[in-house]
Structures are given as C-alpha cells and as structure tokens.
Amino acid sequence: MAARPKIVLAYSGGLDTSVILKWLIEKGFDVIAYTSDVGQGEELEPVRPKALKTGAKKIYIEDLREEFAKNYVWWLVKWNAYYEGQYMLGTSIARPLIAKRQVEIALKEKADYIGHGATGKGNDQVRFELTAYALAPKIKIIAPWREPDWNLNSRTKMIDYARKHGIPVPVTTKKPYSSDRNLLHISYESGILEDPWAAPPEDLFVLTVSPENAPDKPEIITVDFVKGEAVAVNGKAMTPAALLAKLNVIGGRNGVGRVDLVENRFVGMKSRGVYETPGGTILYAAHRAVESLTMDREVMLLRDQLMPKFAQLVYNGFWFSPEMDALKTFINETQRNVTGTAKLKLYKGSVTTIGRKSPRSLYNTAIATFEEDSVYNQADATGFIRLNALRLRLRKAAAGR
Fold it and tell me: Does 340 reside within a domain?
C-alpha cells in the first residue's frame, strides 16, 4: 500500500484551518499541523489536542515572538513604514516569518507539500507562497480555497462542515468577523465591515479603549533607541517582544492606534479593514522624534522617498527578494546614529512628541537660536537665495519674450 503524501499545514485552530485540516485528511493526506506564536495573546497549547483530535499526525507549536519583534517589526520601525499612508503592515510583516518556519519544518519532516488557509482573493496566499518558493524552490503548495473540488466557499458552509465533523470553532454566522492578531496589531475584516460606510461596532475592539473613554489625564512616557531599535520604555530595558507588548498595553489604555481604511490588495481588489496598532503607533512617533535630532536631512529625504517601495514589498510578500536585501542594507546605514530618547504624551488616542535627546544629536543650539549669535553669518543667506532663484528668474524672463 502506497504511503499517504505528507503535508505541513499552517494551522491556527480557527475556523478555516480547522476545516482545512479535516478536508485534507479526507483527500488522502497525512497532515502535520504547525502553529506559530507571534503574539496572538492567547494560550496556544489548547490548539495541540484540537489538532490531534481533528486528525493531525503531529503538531509543532513554535514561539516566534522575539524573532518576530527583532527581525521583522523592527525593520518597519526603522523605515517608519506605512502602506498607502495608513496601514502599518501588521499582518503583512508576520507572514514571511510564519512561512519561513513552515518551510523549515517541511524540510525537516521530508514532507511532500505545505498548505495554508488563505483564500484566492487575499494577499496572504501570495505572501506565504512567495516566501516558500524563495526558500525552497521545489516545494509543492496546496491552497484548498483554489482547488477545483473545494466547495466550502463561504463562512456559513464552513461552519456547517465543522459542526458536522464535531470541530469546535470560535466563529458564528451571527458574528462572522475575520481577525488576525500578533504582537504588532489586530486586524478585522468581513461581516458588517464589508460595508465601507458602516462604522465598526465598539465591541469589536480588543487592544484599545475608545478615545472617548480613555483617561482624562495625559500619560507621559519615554522610549530609548540604539541604532534605530527600541531598547527601553520609561528607562527600563526590555527584550523586543516584551517592549512591544508593554507599549501595546500603554497605548491601548489611552485609545492609541485605531485605523479604519480601504486598501488596495495586491491581487487587484479593494478591501476594507479595521486595525488596532497601539504599540507600533507609539514606536513610530518615538523613532521619528529621535531621527529628527540625529539623521542628516538628505538621508532622511532619501529614506522617506524609498519608504513606499519598502512598504509595497512587505505588503506584496517580497520579503525574501534581492531588492529587499538591498533596502535592508540601506536602512541600516541610515540608522547608525539614531540613538537617543523620545518623550511622548499620550492622550485620548493621540501621540504627541514633547521632548527628544541624543548623544549623537546634530542639533546645535548656538546655530539654531533666534537670539544673538556669533557662529552664523546671516548675510550668507543672500547669495544662497539668489543662486536658488536663478532658474526661476530665467524661466520668468523667457516667458516674457
């Protein structure tokens, strides 16, 4: 009797992957479940008996929180990266790490395939598979949502299938939100959110209180950076994952980090999403404050011009690409002197910089002062302005001929 093909399935224990696990078994696969902890904020050990009870031959539960914060989220902070001006890439940045570890497990287990629960409409299918092919070019991938015999193409059908097979799921047809959580954020899609005019219900939010219900007194905090990486909050040194978790709590209680947007997916459609990113919002503001003292003007301009490209690469799934390698080398060079401390005021959803200091500061009070000084000759500005105006004057003169 021929051995059943082996597949490593990215498994969360939620509705989609629970159903997919059972479906793959019915299709003749031996399934190895793989769950990654990137900061979901929940105990993952209960996933183990659920996966095994559903039929998995084995399950890996991997704690990737520190690697996620240091080797993935910190890159976003160095770039102050936003996709389309608003989205802080919380889901996007986790996918290459999750997929990388999945490939490593597949190679270790000598599995024939890897599988995932991403739909054929979303970005995650691209992120998972570009990562897999970049790291293991000969890997085979099964994405059930794209298979011709997959007929569980709605939340209602999946819930019915799960009930039929005795699989407990956390989603109901009454409240069918799709959410994704990690150390950086929580995202919400589907259900009432598919109407871009409908405001998200307040009971949807998990990490943040509404700004209206945040404390009436501002909270002042400090964040320390070394070479562009956050190392301490309020003077207390922390690991990257612990620091991000701490800022999530601080930001959350002050209503910081809510975003409601319609974004352009890589596959071509528009999608409405609601996000909570309290710690990341604080980090971006603090990082920019330290950069304002320590980064050369033209270097900052060049970084900011390249940022949309970096964000696009992250969003579209090209983490393991030659262009990303080049951008990482560039950004590390820009961050060499980004060492210092930012002081921030958090108040009812806002983050305001109220102080910054750095041992590598380029700010010179003697030059910047509006008081009397002896180090800056203001008459030098006359020639500077006339030279910069030359092309404007010539253009006007030519237009009058």
Answer: yes
